Amino acid sequence: MSNLIFLPIVIPLLASIVAALFAKQLRGVRLFSQITAVLSLVFISGLTFYIFSEGTIVGQAGGWQAPYGISIVGDPLAMLLVTTTNVIGTAALFYAPRILERQQETFYFYGFYFLLISGVSGAFMTGDLFNLFVFFEVLLMASYGLIVLGNGKAQLRESFKYVLFNLFSSMLFIVSVAYIYSITGTVNFAQLAERVESVDQQGALTTVGVILFFVFAVKGAIFPLYYWLPNSYVVPNPVVSALFGALLTKVGIYSIIRIYTLIFVHETGVTHQLFIWLAMLTMLFGVIGALSTHNVKLIIAYNIIPAVGFMLMGVGLYSPESIAGSVYYLMHDMVIKGALFFLIGALVVAAGTKDLRQMSGVIQRYPLLGWIFFVASLILAGVPPFSGFIGKILLLEGGLAQEEFLLVIVALLSSLLILLSMMRIFVYGFWGEKMDGMSSDYKHIRKLTIPGVVLVGIAIFLGVGAEFVYPHIESISNMLYDRTEYISSVLKES
Amino acid sequence: MEFILIGLASLLFGTGIYNLLQKQLLRIIIGTVLVSHGAHLFLLTMARVKTGAPPLISDASSYTDPLPQALILTAIVISFGVTSFLLVLAYRTYTLNKTDNMEEMRGREYE
Amino acid sequence: MIDIIISLLLLIGTFFTFSGSLGIIRFPDVYTRLHAATKAATLGVAGVLLGAFFYLLFDQGIVSGKLLIGIVFVLMTAPISGHMISRAAYNSGVQLTQHTKHDQLNQDTRRTTK
Amino acid sequence: MAVQIVVNLLIAITWMFLSETYDFVSFFVGYVIGIGLLFLLRRFLTDKYYMVRVFSVIKLILIFIKELILSSIEIVKHAYKPSINVEPGIFALPIDLTSDKEITLLTSLISLTPGTLSVSVSYDCKHVYIHAMDLPDVEASINDIKQTFESAIMEVTR
Amino acid sequence: MLQDFGADMLSVTVWISFIGISLSIILLVYRTIKGPTNADRAVALDSIGINMMALVGLQAINLATDQLNDIVLLIGILLFIGTIAIAKFLEKGVIIDRHNH
Amino acid sequence: MIFAIFAPLLLAIIIPFLSRWKDKIHTGWLILPIPFAVFIYFLQFVGSDFQPKVFSVDWIPSLDIALSFHLDGLSLLFALLISGIGTLVVLYSIYYLNHKEQLSHFYTYLYIFMTAMLGVILSDNVFGLYAFWEFTSISSFLLIGYWHHRERSRYGALKSMLITVFGGFSLLAGLILLTIVTGTTSIQGMVDQADTIVNSEFFPFILTFLILGAFTKSAQFPFHIWLPDAMEAPTPVSAYLHSATMVKAGIYLMARFSPILAGEPYVFIILSLVGLVTLTWGSYMAVRQTDLKGILAFSTISQLGMIMAMLGFGTKVALFAAVFHILNHATFKGSLFMIAGIVDHETGSRDIRKLGGLFTFMPVSATLAIFGTFSMAGVPLPFLNGFYSKEMFFKASLDNTASSPFAETLVTIIPILAVVGSIFTFIYSMYLFFNTFTGESQVDELPKHPHEAPKMMLLPPFILVLGVLTIGLFPTIFNESLITHAADAVYGGEANKDIYFWHGLIPAFYMSIAVVVIGAVMYLTKSKWDRIYHALPGRLSLNKVYDWIVAKTETASQAITQFYMTGSLRNYMVLLLTAISAIVISVMLITDGMNFDMAETAPITTSEVLVVLFMAAAAVATIFARNRIAIILIVGVVGYGMAVLFVMYRAPDLALTQLIVETVTVALFLLCFYHLPNLNKSKTTWFTKSTNVIISVVFGLIMMVVGISAYNGRAFDPIAQYFIDNSYKLGGGDNMVNVILVDFRGIDTLFEVAVLFGAALAIVAMIKLRRNKGAN
Ligand code: NA
Ligand code: NA
């Protein structure tokens, strides 16, 4: 069983190679990718259910026991996120052929896609700090590949900035690993967790922890390190934006959740309080950005940022409820961001423009798109009974219980402004007199809408059917809060 | 000796950052290269240097910590991959945008 | 005894290497500097490496073929590199020092181009 | 020549099998024996005994090393002189060598000779342009190179 | 007696050589930075490589290991390739690079 | 009961599929039975022996969120209003809306709204309540924006949504705080712990959050501004939302929590004050309106203020009156909206200045309107229910006790404000009726020739007027079977029992008389007062505040975002580095993170120092180099220096790799920057340069200080010994680094190759795609 745990990482890697090798046989590759994605989604879902019921599976690569080898840890949190990743990815694969140019598909879209999935899954599952760096690089490299697929002026320009920011944070990552290794002499999460506790002089460790935080903060787009995000997420093809929006920043925030609940919890008064402040600023500046533009894609891209703020808020509050809130929100946000980027891609194709000022009455021709977008907006804003609401309740509960009133008010205010930014699209873009120049290719738009519909359906389920999901999230959060299970399952031999 | 090396690594970081803050594509990339050298050097230094024989099994009594070396090796190769990509990207960016000045590539048209 | 020979090799090698570098610093133009690089430095490194070869051979009992090949390789490639650089320098228009007396290449090139 | 080397190698390996020691020393002994055998059988060989060429190569290398040492000393002298008063210049050396291999070898060797450095080869391969560190007399330099290297190279290649 | 002297001398020599070569590299770095032409830099860089080979050789004596020989050889090969590449580049670069100095 | 609540929602899902028959039959007919059935269902509970009922279905038990419904008197009253008036509104809409419109949308929204409203008033679980609450906001947004091709509709829809959702979020915070304080999510459970809540340190926050939720929803001053714009909705919607449902949700909320809140000094002050201000302001504003629906909108605002004020008084009388007035207001306001719709429908205009003398053309409508308006005005006639509750209101306004000096002042001005507000109410009621139905008719100026509406369209307002009269004539029946139970629920015990027409010559009676007399005089001389009515910029100014906030949010967002999202890589880098530096330095200082107790180090040797020096020199030189090849070569020096360091520090494998990588990188550099122009002397300002220097230096120093501290802070032996011991034994190799790479940490290596693979693909894609596609 413990060898199966590598498959979520290895299958996409192999698929990536196959897809790249046969990239010119486009039809074959498409079919291969879709089949592979669906099959591995089925497999991973099964594995996840198994782990939910039977407990964490730890794969020690090459049979070397932790902390000497690299542990791939299939704990419920990791598996939950890997499953979500694959869900969104699979949806993206069915969206891609309809929105990508042929050129872009043949130039290794599918190769990059699988590489991205492999990197993201690896980042979720690894139990080793340096290995996390490696998986970061894998997923970043894949994202670089995806972002340059447009290969136009703007794409390349924004890609350059994007690559630089990530490169710099990667370097900071290495330095942080160096610092941590110097103090603790290990890079294994579980062993780090054990050792960090018993370090005498913790000031230096806290400082290092904060530096490491910034590494993830750049990837996770936390204030004030998200400058690279909006434009980099706007210039690529919608399917790429969807993958980015749903997966990339989430890896950063996942790492924060993991590391600042497992390892650096020795001085929460400093680190986690810092998170709370940054969470507030992230939410505020994110929505401010979302309100600042008439580019519909950019509105969605900016909306990634406040969501990150919400998740960070949960880590900052550091209580079982708030962590559960962050995890729920994380899962929810992956799904809904994927959906929104799909839908907004469809909207841009349908309306023939990205500019809200030139858009109106789209719903009159494309009611399904309009209504799904409307529901997606509500989900995003955390309106009950959808998925965003569950996470929000938990986070607010956590915040209020700790009397962080300012934080709660900022969170609610930004929820309101998120709704405003989304409703602006609905009211000014979908409503109104039927505009000229709208696409009349109903079939195409319909096909572009379907993947979004599926994801929105999942998001609705995550809210309405929260009872099927939440107990797992609760146990995940308890595991995160009480670290012993993770540590013991990884270090069981020693 | 380690403190001198830490100083050098920090200097590499500093100079790298200074270059990163410039306008020309080339300088910016040079900056990333310097920063990555600095990062690798940190990894080397923080594991303590010269504490024994090279990590090759022989009859020596003590060896230098091999783990950081393995990590650096991975990091070097990865940096190389990314830098190569970045170089080609810079080249393409330059040829398409017809400038190597980043300040002329702000791209505000999306707002 | 052998250690003394090795030491001498090392010292001589270092001396030549250092002198070559000094020449590269002090000589007036790229061509004269190349003289220093292709001769003194090459010889110097060959000396040091030979010292190392002997050390491994006699003190450690290791026959290090790679080191030997390395020496030969340097000796073989240094002049080629020097030639390449000087040609590149000349073709890219690097000026000779003002003290230069003859420049037949320049004259010939002018003749053929006219 | 290639055939001879292969034969020599076979002899060396055979020797290793015969002496049942498989290390460098026995290989070396076998190779030396092979050289001797080939020398004895040289009249039965169709082309020139290859060791002759090997000797000329060794001779060339020795010349080369000698020149290298001499020229290096020359350079070192200049490097430490308080003031550098040389008269550098470029001159054309007429050559009789034809193949690329030979010319490359020559230009390389020239570069290592005291005070000279090959800069360029003319398009018709009749001249090598040489930069000299100190060029008091062009003719003398030309003769010097022709006598030492060019003949030695020809010995090896022809 | 002589052997002891030789061993002592060797360690001193290696030390002296280390310093000599390092100083030599510093001189070359100066030339690399200073130029004035790129050809000068190429020469200096080439020499730095050669000096590095010597340095690695010294370290091989210092650590009494033959594992560094690969590096010596590799430096030699790379240096050659690199120098040729740079020279080729300098030669072609003339088209645009005319106003370099 | 669950079915009763969700029946409209279920139907809403089916409605779009019903629309295929819309050519044959108006969709409204098909769906009319549902609300009626719901009404009948709830009607069966009515009776003097009513006992609260509880129905519950688990939803998310692990979060203590359930669909648990508690049907008490208050809920029952509301449920009847919602389903009853809902039925009438659907019936009315069948005649009001043309069947060519997208009726399926309309009814879908309406039925979602109906379920949401029923859910709000029946939920016992606070999160259930909140969920339904938000759905009322959303469905009313859709209803208001039903004619979304009209700019005003979109504006009104967005405005109502923003304000009510704002309130909703606030309510959520309040509800969560309540669950934190009480440990239960059940409202009844909270009511049982009223003391815990009131004495909790969170109470001020709970109060603020709840009140904000209620005020925004119930259009209390100054959040009332969304309501007039919501009149852009089709009139059936207005009749429904603003008489009985949506706007009463806030009232309901305050009533629901009244057992906890009533009597609290702050509750008294805030609710009474805001309620009365809303009452006065709304009625004053209503007088100025010229649009029939505008008058009714502000009338609604003022009536809501009145009810809110009574909830604030918190006395038995006041609470009873509040509940009673909820019912009364629903009847007369519902009928008036419908009449206004009929007038609009049949004349094509709602402008009161163009209307007049319609009595002749529409006698039935006019008759119905008499009862509605006079009841609203509180004219003391025994068959008008409005008077009963108005009189009780006056009575309650005189019956307050003060607990603080401020409250004392308030207690004295409450009756005054009550009378003033009621005077205005009287005026606009008269104005509404007489200016529409009597006086000179201007038939020619109207878009349509007026005539009476179809009988069936008159039926809904007729039924409501019938309600007005029945309640007025037989208050006791309603009281015993319905209102008492509701009042008990609000009071949290035995509330007032009796409704009398004649209380005797109590002060309240004089107040009623004063209202009628002064009101009549002022109405008759209305033209003389016009200047006063228009003296204040009034409605416009508050709207302007809203518009200003929305516009400012947008422009300020733009300004802020454009200020720092400059697109300039350098600016971003500067911000990033400054932020990291500042925070890391602060953390270092706070946690005392610097550690200068020097740990053991390797000895310093000259040659190593020299190597370090040459690398340092080269690194610094990159800054000053002007020549592009020079800079590349100098960086090569640094790279080779790294290799030397690796050799010196016993890492031969690293040195090898570094050498190859560095050479290839330099070659690639040369290749890629082949065509680039030289690095011209950049025109950077002195300021830019010095910030660059400062940032680089500071960041470098931080790295150094943290590095030194981390170095000195070694607390454990590294795990290296295991590798040293086991590389050969277990890994089968004598080069430990290699063994680690391919065996212990094989995954690293595998994915390092994956990175190279990705890089290669990306490079190929970049180069090849260009050829095929060309620059765009
Ligand atoms: Na527009
Ligand atoms: Na629009």
TrEMBL record, chain A:
* Membrane found in the keyword field: yes
Entry keyword annotation includes Nucleotide-binding: no
* UniProt-listed InterPro entries: CPA3_Na-H_Antiporter_D, NADH_UbQ_OxRdtase, ND/Mrp_TM
Instruction: Report the residue ranges that make up the NADH:quinone oxidoreductase/Mrp antiporter transmembrane domain in this protein.
Output: 127-416
- What are the subcellular locations of this protein? Cell membrane; Membrane
Record the organism.
Alkalibacillus flavidus
User: Where would you find the membrane-spanning parts of this chain?
Assistant: 6-23, 35-52, 72-95, 107-126, 132-150, 162-183, 203-227, 239-262, 274-291, 298-318, 338-356, 368-386, 406-427, 448-470
The UniProt entry's sequence similarity note says: Belongs to the CPA3 antiporters (TC 2.A.63) subunit D family.
Question: Could you tell me the keywords of this UniProt record?
Answer: Antiport, Cell membrane, Membrane, Transmembrane, Transmembrane helix, Transport
Query: Its topology with respect to the membrane?
Result: Multi-pass membrane protein
- At the top level of its lineage, which domain of life is listed? Bacteria
Q: Under which name does UniProt file this protein? A: Multicomponent Na+:H+ antiporter subunit D
Q: What is its main location?
A: membrane
From TrEMBL, chain D:
Where in the cell does this protein reside? Cell membrane
Which keywords are on file for this protein?
A: Antiport, Cell membrane, Membrane, Transmembrane, Transmembrane helix, Transport
Query: Which positions, given as ranges, span the membrane?
Result: 24-42, 54-73
* Membrane topology of the entry: Multi-pass membrane protein
Q: Name one Pfam family in it.
A: MNHE
Tell me where it mainly resides.
membrane
The record's annotation in InterPro entries points to: Cation_antiport_E (IPR002758)
| Signal peptide positions (record) | none
Superkingdom, according to UniProt?
Bacteria
Q: Which family does it belong to?
A: Belongs to the CPA3 antiporters (TC 2.A.63) subunit E family.
Q: What is this protein called?
A: Multicomponent Na+:H+ antiporter subunit E
From TrEMBL, chain E:
What superkingdom heads the lineage? Bacteria
Sorted alphabetically, the keyword list is:
Antiport, Cell membrane, Ion transport, Membrane, Transmembrane, Transmembrane helix, Transport
Give its localization. Cell membrane
**Could you tell me the membrane topology recorded for this protein?**
Multi-pass membrane protein
Among its keywords, does the record have Cell membrane? yes
Record keyword Transmembrane present: yes
Write out the transmembrane intervals.
Answer: 12-30, 42-65, 71-90
Please give the family membership noted in the entry. Answer: Belongs to the CPA3 antiporters (TC 2.A.63) subunit F family.
**NCBIfam families per UniProt:** PRK12600.1 (NF009248)
Q: Which PANTHER family match?
A: NA(+)/H(+) ANTIPORTER SUBUNIT F1, NA(+)_H(+) ANTIPORTER SUBUNIT F
The name on file for this protein is: Multicomponent Na+:H+ antiporter subunit F
**What species does this protein belong to?**
Alkalibacillus flavidus
Automatic annotation (TrEMBL), chain F:
Where are the membrane-spanning stretches?
29-47, 77-97, 106-123, 129-148, 160-182, 202-227, 239-260, 266-287, 294-313, 319-343, 355-379, 413-437, 458-479, 499-524, 572-590, 602-624, 631-649, 655-674, 686-711, 749-767
In the record, the note on similarity to other proteins reads:
Belongs to the CPA3 antiporters (TC 2.A.63) subunit A family.
- Topological relation to the membrane, as annotated: Multi-pass membrane protein
This protein's UniProt keywords: Antiport, Cell membrane, Hydrogen ion transport, Ion transport, Membrane, Sodium, Sodium transport, Transmembrane, Transmembrane helix, Transport
- The MrpA C-terminal/MbhD domain, residue ranges: 613-677
Q: Lineage of the native species?
A: Bacteria, Bacillati, Bacillota, Bacilli, Bacillales
Protein name, UniProt field = Multicomponent Na+:H+ antiporter subunit A
Q: What is its main location?
A: membrane
InterPro entries in alphabetical order: CPA3_Na-H_Antiporter_A (IPR050616), MrpA/MnhA1/PhaAB (IPR005663), MrpA_C/MbhD (IPR025383), MrpA_C/MbhE (IPR046806), ND/Mrp_TM (IPR001750), Nuo/plastoQ_OxRdtase_6_NuoJ (IPR042106), Proton_antipo_N (IPR001516)
Where does the protein end up? Cell membrane; Membrane
Q: Which residues form the NADH-Ubiquinone oxidoreductase (complex I) chain 5 N-terminal domain?
A: 60-107
Domain MrpA C-terminal/MbhE, by residue range, is: 690-771
- A Pfam family found in this protein is MbhE
Where does the record place the NADH:quinone oxidoreductase/Mrp antiporter transmembrane domain? 123-400
